[in-house]
Each structure stands twice: as structure tokens, then as C-alpha cells.
Structures
1.
Amino acid sequence: MAETDHLLTGILYGVLILCLATGGWLVHRQWHSDSSQRLVTVDLVRILNAERKALPQLSAGGDPSLKLLQIGREIGPTVEQVADGAVVLVKQSVVGGDLPDITDAVLDQLGLPKNAPTIDLTGALNDAPTTSSATAGEVWKDHLKRMREQAAQTRVNGKTNALNQALP
């Protein structure tokens, strides 16, 4: 029985040493690897706007919805091909930093125009209304004012309708 205990203890120590060695190797490999992941961005809004701009040319040769569907199916594989192994981030989701953009290359590959108009709304974010800009009392007063105006308009419309019904 004692020999079995010693054998099991030896096996357990061996497995423990093997696990520690493997874990150490994995940590070393992760921290000291030379391969760093490249990051690139793609502007999906520009791609969608380019599709819209190309719609008249697409509709000249048949059903435009089928051609748009085909382009839609090609966007993902084209982005992967142009990215060439890099991690692709949607440009609108990147808050800071300067990352290379592959949108022009993707548009070229898809045969879409690069000069489609795109509206940049980031400047308007500071002007956007928020509920914190007005107190609850001001919001309630505005709501009551709109309700009174709507009720007055309904009364005027009701009188006009009644008058029109009374007259031949």
C-alpha cells in the first residue's frame, strides 16, 4: 500500500511540474513574442454611401437589388483580403489614435466610387439636446404648453367642422 502511495505521489508531482513548465512556457511566449497584431480601420458609412451613389449605374444593367445584394456579400471578404491579416475596426467605433484606413482600397476592389458625399456628424454631438439641459419643471411646462395648443387647435377644427356640416 505504501508503494502505491509513493507511486501516486510521484505521478502527481510529475504532472504538477509538467503543468508549471507548460504554463511558464506559454507566459514567456505570450510576453516575449515578436509578432504584434496590426490594426486598421474601415469606414462602413463611406462604403454604404458609395453603394447609394453607384445605384443609378447599377440599375442600368438589370435588377439593382440583386447587384446591391452581391456587393453586400462581397464587402466582408474584400475587407479581409485588403486587411491582409490585420485586425479590422469600424472607423466610427475608434475614439482615439491614428490607425491606417483601408476604405479607399476596399472601394477600389468593389468597383465603387470614392467620392460619395458623407456627412460627418461628430461636430453636432455637442449641440444635441439632452434631458439634463432642462429642469424637470421646464420640461413639464413645455409639455403643458404643447397640450394646450393642441387642445385649442382641436376646438377650432371642431367648430369649423360643425359649421361646415350645418351649412349646405
2.
Amino acid sequence: MGTLERREREKARVRDKIKAAARELFASEGYGAVSMRRIAEAIEYSPTAIYVHFADKDALMREICRDDFDRLSGAFAELAAITDPVERIRRVGHAYIEFGATYPNHYRLMFMTERPALALDADDLARKGRPEADGYAFLRAAVSEAIAQGRVRTGVPADAELLAQTLWAGMHGVTSIEISHCKDRWIELSPLQERARMMADLTTDGIFAPAAGASSPASETKSKAGKAQQRQAQKHSGEKKARSR
């Protein structure tokens, strides 16, 4: 490894260290309450050393957000191959919740912390609205495709923005509760996977109809539950008849 490569690697390592400390502080203490000096103290660097890497706090926040939203978009990327837009929407919900549970500090800062309304720069504008680079655009595109296929249920407005934001709100609810209350001693939360599946199924199937000739996962689950209850009832009935003989 050459000298220049070592320097670049060390520079990247320091930047990552600064961003990790800033992300945690912004999420736990609030963006406005955290200074560049506070971040420097957290990693035992001088404020001057941080300014070598980031011009100011806004520049630092911008790069953190860009990294984290890129990571979320990457979690959606493999779902693009799913041809049925409704199933793609369902899977986006699961991927979103899994992202938040895996990276709680990232999620807190992205969706649970008040952040400054930074002006969009050229890089932001190049990403905005592109499904391969913008997670919200990915969800909205799938919703638009489902609307175009006539899959929206009767009585549900065929508004891609409204439906995408409603779906997002449901998934955010599950994710934020998991992050903020997973250690709550007052409420015993059901397993995350069960809560995620129920929210994804109920919101997706409540808005969209399955493809012609197909049944939704929610209806299949209901059917299985009904059959299980029927078998249990038959078992009890058989046992009752046996006792009465």
C-alpha cells in the first residue's frame, strides 16, 4: 500500500469516526444542542481537526443523512426485481422495519429527530425522485404502478403520494415503537416480525387488491387460522362424544 493510499484510508476512517459520534449525539441530544466542539470532545479530537474534514455542522449533517438514506435505498434495491408492485410494496415495508431495527441510531436521526431544513445541493437534486437512489421515490413508483394496474380497492383514493405516505406512516409506527419501547417494562411487545408482518399485510391488503386469480398473504393467513380453529373444534367435539359413550 502506497503512502497516498494510506493517507486516504486514514482520512476516511477519521471521517467515519466523526460521523458516528455526531449521529449518536444528534439523535440523543438534538441537532441544535450539539456543537462541533461537543462532537470533538466525544472522540477526543480538537475542534480544529474536525473542521479539516467538515466545513461546519450543516455539512456534517448533510453527509450523515446522505450516507444513511443511501443505505436505506440499498436495502430496497434488490426488491426492484419483484414484478408484482403490490408484493413489492409489502416487501418494502418489511425491509424498512428491518433497517430501523438493525440501525437504530441511523433511524433515530433520519426519522425521529428534528433536523434543519438544509437547502438541496446539486447532488441532492440529482438523487431526488429517482427510485434507484431515493427510497421514498421507490415506494411511490410501486404505488403508482399498482394504481395503473387498477389494483386500488373501491373507496380508496388513487393518490400515489397519499397512499405512499400512509404506508410509510404505518411502517414508521412499528419501527419507532420498536426503537423507543423495546425495553419497556410496562408493555410486553409482541415479536417484531409478527408486528411487522401484520402491519405490512393489513396496510397493503387494505389499500390494494391481489392480482387476478391470486390471494393475498393476509387472506391466506386468515384461511389457515380458520382451518386450524375448525380442526380444533372437531377435535373437542370428538373428545366430547367419546366421553359421553
